[in-house]
Amino acid sequence: MLTAGNFSAFHKIHQDEMWHFYDGDPIVIHVITPEGKYYNQLVGRNIANGELPQFVVEGGSWFASEVVEGGDYSFVGCTVAPGFDFKNFVLASRRQLIEFFPSHQEVIKRLTRV
DSSP letters of the chain? Predict the structure, then answer.
């Protein structure tokens, strides 16, 4: 569960990660592909508004998430396949990620901790 004002900082894993929406407000998942393309996806129930109830982040992509602006909380779950192992988890360094993807520095600064 994520609450307003909190976020899941940019990180990556080797495996694909499927996000599932359960309750609350939509969540925004921010993705930077290994090639440097940025996009975001709303995950929620309102299909007509472009939200998806499930969304897959491809393995090797950097991604972060946050509750949609004006929302209170998002209750979501994740499925990783093949199985998740913390040795494959990399938390982004703000400096290093900006060096790799300078055109995305605004979102990187906002959604990294160090």
Answer: -EETT-EEEEEE-SSEEEEEEEEES-EEEEEE-TT--EEEEEESS-GGGT-BSEEEEPTT-EEEEEEPTT--EEEEEEEEES---GGG-EEPPHHHHHHH-GGGHHHHHHT---
pLDDT tens for the chain, 114 residues long, are: 999 999 999 999 999 999 999 999 999 999 999 999 999 999 999 999 999 999 999 999 999 999 999 999 999 999 998 888 888 899 999 999 999 999 999 999 999 998
* Spatial separation of the C-alpha atoms in residues 34 and 11, rounded to whole Å: 12
Determine contact, residues 36/111, Cβ cutoff 8 Å. no
Place of tokens 């400096």: 95
What is the pairing mode between strands 62-67 and 90-91?
A: unpaired
Three-state secondary-structure class, residue 105? helix
User: Rounded distance, CA 109 to CA 9, Å?
Assistant: 10
